[in-house]
Prior knowledge:
Chains A, B: Pfam families: Otopetrin (PF03189). Two copies of one chain form a homodimer. By secondary structure, chain A is an all-alpha fold.
Amino acid sequence: MxxxxxxxxxxxxxxxxxxxxxxxxxxIWKKGGRMFSVLLAINLVLLACTLVSSAAFNQVAVHDYDxxxxxxxxxxxxxxxxxxxxxxxxxxxxxxxxxxxxxxPVWLRGGLVLFAIFTLVMDVFKTGYYSSFYNCLSAIKIIYxxxxxxxxxxxxYFLWISAKDCIHVHLNVTRCGLMLTLTTNLAVWMSxxxxxxxxxxxxxxxxxxxxxxxxxxxxxxxxxxxxxxSQICQIFQSGYFWLYPFNIEYSLFASAMLYVMWxxxxxxxxxxxxxxxxxxxxxxxxxxFVGIVLGLxxxxxxxxxxxxxxxxxxxSGQPDKKNEALIMYYTFNxxxxxxxxLVCIGGSIxxxxxxRDMDHHKNPTRTLDMALLLGAALGQYAISYYSIVAVVxxxxxxxxxxxxxxxxxxxIAQHTFQNIFIIEGLHRxxxxxxxxxxxxxxxxxxxxxxxxxxxxxxxxxxxxxxxSPLPHGQGAVAIQPSDVVQxxxxxxxxxxxxxxxxxxxxxxxxxxxxLWIMPAFGARPQFDNVKELxxxxxxxxAAIVDICLPFGIFYRMHAVxxxxxxxxxx
Amino acid sequence: MxxxxxxxxxxxxxxxxxxxxxxxxxxIWKKGGRMFSVLLAINLVLLACTLVSSAAFNQVAVHDYDxxxxxxxxxxxxxxxxxxxxxxxxxxxxxxxxxxxxxxPVWLRGGLVLFAIFTLVMDVFKTGYYSSFYNCLSAIKIIYxxxxxxxxxxxxYFLWISAKDCIHVHLNVTRCGLMLTLTTNLAVWMSxxxxxxxxxxxxxxxxxxxxxxxxxxxxxxxxxxxxxxSQICQIFQSGYFWLYPFNIEYSLFASAMLYVMWxxxxxxxxxxxxxxxxxxxxxxxxxxFVGIVLGLxxxxxxxxxxxxxxxxxxxSGQPDKKNEALIMYYTFNxxxxxxxxLVCIGGSIxxxxxxRDMDHHKNPTRTLDMALLLGAALGQYAISYYSIVAVVxxxxxxxxxxxxxxxxxxxIAQHTFQNIFIIEGLHRxxxxxxxxxxxxxxxxxxxxxxxxxxxxxxxxxxxxxxxSPLPHGQGAVAIQPSDVVQxxxxxxxxxxxxxxxxxxxxxxxxxxxxLWIMPAFGARPQFDNVKELxxxxxxxxAAIVDICLPFGIFYRMHAVxxxxxxxxxx
Lengths: 570, 570
């Protein structure tokens, strides 16, 4: 008889201050398991970073095949783990109790598959290119693209079917496996970015300043007379460099999805807040076509500008033509960025009047989206600030410098306003809520409208929309009836507001696509405009641009995905 | 009669899925205000970063007085805001409803004041140094240290009295002001680190490789014949360079405290979880003096090693002496790091058996502590990985290389284990809980011990400590009585365990102090050991070390503060 109360009390006595403890033992050790996998990832990323950066420099005795060797090994380990996950872990009883409805939306997975296909084509080209001079190279250069192709196929399949999983068995193994795969993708990304930058800087400076800058970076120099002379080899080489942007984006997409999966390991989702939004992608419905038409116009003219710019800058050696091309490029960008900034400000103002509830539920996907947008914007910010300082501090001030300054300032403004707009958009409840309550609300009105006079009688001060023939102050027992009237007037305003937001997000989406295409496919005004190059010196400016620009390009890519989500949600 | 239910329903209808919403309007707009101040901070940090990094390089036309000019202006703005806060904001009614008990503990504020005093001395030296050749310099070089001194005094007073505030008026102004002050501290930190690195690389290479590396970095070169020749000027110069480490730490301490204040703006603290731990600093009580004695021994021998090392490396030009000094330095570090790693592993094992509750309350200070520990460790990780690659890949393998490799590997291991130990320690409930429940528990035992036989009778399977003369299986109605027995046995074990943890944290604390002193006061084996220098080339290796080492030094400093907290809590 005495034991029962003693036990209860003593177990209570352990936590005298504790609020209702919802942490089960699993929850408590989550941090430990997470920390171990994070430490593993940090160490692997740093090792990869060291090797990749060492291999990029000529005077360092680390070669690119050392990097390929490491990458091949970690890829093989990842493939083994993914197969283990698909065959053993996911098949266990109670392995996947919940699915995170926000993780891995269909457009992200679709984009992943698209980029995976281009990456596979790139791997074919790479294998073909290296096979052309098979005898002079170490075997790892041919093995690497083949292993990468297998890795891409296995990983894409894995992410397609498992992106939403909240796994509840083999917690620590799964965490480490996910972090390992994530790290591998980051290492591949670093290697691809470095390889592309080295290649770009070589083609850029091959003719103009031969010899002076050559020593800084390694490249695919002809070794022992095994040069790439046959036409098919040339096609392979230029083909795989054109496909690099897709491989880079593939790695980043996969990393983002793996991170969300890692956050979801062992997660218990509250069924209360777990409402799946079956959002349908209804393109062009409920829009006036203004956003899409204007956006497409900018997209097409941007492509034209890019082609003309590339031709004028790369083929002609005349500085006049180059200057013209730069002026054209900057003018187009300034117009585009100004429009985008204005539209973002307009969108943010519309959100100010939006009475939809803020969505504050836990949502790792959205938190990651925000962090990536803010983090990736730092790349472009940094380039812009360095440009601004260079232009302001150096003396000969011509038209190109003025345009460059405006362009840099607008870049900063546009990134800032766009981030604010996207983050506000992502934090709104989807409009499905309105749809669902409409039938319900109609019933209420049906009930109220029996005595419609009683409503119009009580709302003299708030409504110019409703005709109120009676003089003011008549409703003696008006218990805040403006609420009722507002809910009658809301649909029209909401409709207009939602149309406006849809226009805005479509326009911004198309603009971001062209601003992604331009740097991803070779436009480098940062190097064609000699101002910063002379101010900072080649090596410093190249380091700044080569480190920061990949983040800027990724920002555009990620903004497109986020704007698509904002479009669907508004 | 009909309006009331209509209103209630329609207001409910807006959130059909919503869980109990606890977000008041203030909470909802918190994100907006935060984002704005973060964007402000990002932009200012990037601008400062651009200016500081540009000013560090010789061929760039940005000068250090440009940086000083910018810093002086933002410091003046910060001083104005701090005065506004102290005089207007904090005096308003209901301005400070809550105090965060975790923020700004007394040792952090004490450390801040200590570093502030050294910074003031440094400012005096700096003013004296620049006044020596007053005529050749722009006035900003003398104004800057004076403004900095005022800023340090105002800021230290502000942080001393306001570090715990959770302010509830002027939210946006306060957020922006705090972020501005935080950014200013980071900018001062960047400027100080760069200035120190430039100075170090100058003194290092003044004699040995004159001319070859000189062009890379700017320094305090004599301008127009205004060189520092008088003895007092020399004293001022060397004095202020010796005091730089304290200024660097001051800026980082202030930044950390400002960040916690920023997180606490507008925070509503649940009084339920708001239990202030009146932890007293009882040094040397409940310890066996093993940790402190061993730690002091290592501290003193480390100081001796540092002095001998500095003398041998800097004064003698003989490579033999230099090699000896390096071997001594590495050996000492290897012994120290091995001991620390072992002790950390031991501590983590002890925590495995610790049944104290994990503390999962919201605590911005602790979250920041963890993030800073993990983030700052990246600096040392990066240096170690680059060293490892250099040593493994280069061919002449002598004793120094082997020691360097061991040292780098142990650095990685020690950082990892120490982070795990500290983070586990910070997540425990303080032992006060045990004290408070003891009287309560004693009552329970008093009640139980009336029939002491009944207890010992029912615990045959779990206790070897309690004598149980009766054969097994006698207690027929034993309803899990092991709980009761364990709570009788706990105090002894807990006492032993806590003593052990106290020893460990004191030992680690002292070791971290010596590992902070060594690099902070000039030991640079990374440059004295020519292996990495030859492997990566001077400019790349200098960039790696100069960017990463300040984080490594900050890590040691921060680990000391965290270990002190672990010591007090265990």
